[in-house]
From TrEMBL:
GO cellular component: cytosol; eukaryotic translation initiation factor 2B complex
Protein name: Translation initiation factor eIF2B subunit beta
Subunit structure, as described in the record: Component of the translation initiation factor 2B (eIF2B) complex which is a heterodecamer of two sets of five different subunits: alpha, beta, gamma, delta and epsilon. Subunits alpha, beta and delta comprise a regulatory subcomplex and subunits epsilon and gamma comprise a catalytic subcomplex. Within the complex, the hexameric regulatory complex resides at the center, with the two heterodimeric catalytic subcomplexes bound on opposite sides.
Lineage: Eukaryota, Viridiplantae, Chlorophyta, core chlorophytes, Trebouxiophyceae
Region Disordered: start-end pairs: 129-155
Keywords: Cytoplasm, Initiation factor, Protein biosynthesis
A GO term, aspect molecular function: transferase activity
Subcellular localization(s) per the UniProt record: Cytoplasm, Cytosol
Naturally occurring in which organism (per UniProt): Coccomyxa subellipsoidea (strain C-169) (Green microalga)
Domain of life: Eukaryota
Family annotation (SUPFAM superfamilies): NagB/RpiA/CoA transferase-like
InterPro entries recorded: eIF2B_beta_subunit, IF-2B-related, IF_2B-like_C, NagB/RpiA_transferase-like
Length: 405
């Protein structure tokens, strides 16, 4: 389906990818986390190869792989704890007599404040505690793990948790535009003038949500050559918002009269830059020149660990040149070629590229508004560490080359 473009758009593609992976994981049996990781990596690489320009496919696959790795670590921690209890039962040592108050204090240490330093300490302590029992009693750990494996009939017990997390992910993707729109009131104030560019469902939902409590004006650039801004202006006007539609050539002249710029995005890259509609880079430059905040509305399903300078990835797509040049003009060129033998073919041939996306670097972006809140471009590396594992940044280079060939 991705090759035949039956599913269009990053959000629809991400939702379909999550549902497909959930179906495949549910139907096929896996005895351990390693086999599940291998299968998901193979399936995900094939899906990404079918539509390389839709980075949301690989993003969802990486999130699923991260879920499996975390669940596998949790299962190993449980095994280590069970093995430690078995060793303690075999080697019971007399405990010194403690008063009831002292014993209660020993069993329940005082809570620690949830600071970043303490969280890192707790994580370090958990890793150390999980590794210690496996070194002390490896035989007991293997016995407990193999026994649990036999009771389950050869199925990895963490698989049910992975399916539950995938159900939550599908629900999250279903409501992602509304979750982004919940932050609209925090970023749009009364009597402001907002400039947007082209057509974006996320921007539309964001503006409509803000209009419930704020009175503001919207300036919509048409977004040639597809002119999606005309559709956005019509929908905003039907909803009762004061809307002004302008051609792209008037963006710089109108920028001094607006308070901020809102645009959607196709992909959020690892360096904090975004792939968005063609022409957005010019809008960002104009906003930077007039010191107007340039705000990007993007769901975290579009967060990609890839960089714009990656030579193995193509970030742009090209549509038919008919949007740029009418076919009647091409026909005139062909007629002139037949009637004029003295003119070379190079002089008559006209290139009409029609790219879909534009790249906006992080230094031109003021803020990202996501379904989980607002972030600056410098915070993107923290989001990558939270949602993906570094081992999965490249799904499978060898397999991808094999599929492409």
């Amino acid at each position: 389906m991705p090759r035949r473009r039956q599913i269009e758009g990053s959000l629809n593609t991400a939702r379909a990818t999550a549902e497909l992976l959930r179906s495949l994981i549910t139907r096929k049996g896996h005895s351990d986390a390693t086999s599940l990781l291998s299968d998901v990596r193979i399936w995900g690489t094939q899906l990404q190869a079918a539509k390389p320009l839709e980075l949301a496919v690989g993003n969802i696959v990486r999130r699923v792989l991260h879920m499996i790795r975390e669940e596998s670590q949790n299962v190993r921690s449980i095994y280590c704890l069970a093995s430690n209890l078995m060793v303690d039962d075999l080697h019971v040592k007399p405990m010194p007599q403690l008063s009831s108050q002292a014993g209660r204090a020993f069993r329940q240490p005082p809570p620690r404040s949830a600071s970043l330093h303490n969280l890192l300490d707790l994580q370090h302590d958990d890793v150390s505690a999980a590794a210690a029992p496996s070194q002390q009693a490896p035989d007991s750990q293997d016995a407990a793990q193999s026994g649990a494996q036999r009771r389950r009939g050869g199925h990895w017990e963490g698989k049910a948790s992975i399916i539950d997390q995938l159900n939550e992910l599908v629900g999250e993707l279903r409501d992602i535009d509304s979750n982004i729109a919940l932050h609209a009131v925090e970023h749009i104030h009364a009597n402001e003038s907002i400039l947007t560019f082209g057509m974006s469902d996320t921007v539309l939902a964001f503006l409509l949500e803000a209009a419930k409590k704020r009175d503001f004006q919207v300036v919509v650039a048409e977004g040639a050559p597809r002119y999606g801004g005309q559709e956005l202006a019509r929908k905003l006007a039907q909803a009762g918002l004061q809307t002004t539609a302008i051609p792209d050539a008037a963006i710089f002249a109108m920028m001094a009269r607006v308070n901020k710029v809102l645009v959607g995005a196709h992909a959020l890259l690892a360096n904090g830059g975004v792939m968005t509609g063609v022409g957005s880079h010019l809008v960002a430059l104009a906003a930077k020149r007039h010191a107007v905040p340039f705000v990007v509305l993007v769901g975290l399903h579009k967060l990609s660990p890839l960089f714009p300078h990656d030579p193995s990835v193509s970030f742009n797509d090209f549509k038919s040149p008919s949007d740029v040049m009418d076919f009647s003009m091409v026909a005139e060129v062909l007629d002139a070629e037949e009637s004029t033998a003295s003119v070379s073919e190079e002089q008559l041939y006209v290139h009409a590229p029609n790219p879909v996306f534009d790249y906006v670097p992080p230094e031109l972006i003021s803020l990202f508004v996501t379904d989980t809140g607002g972030y600056t471009p410098s915070y993107v590396y923290r989001l990558l560490a939270e949602y993906y594992s570094r081992e999965d940044y490249t799904l499978s280079r060898e397999l991808l080359d094999t599929i492409v060939r």
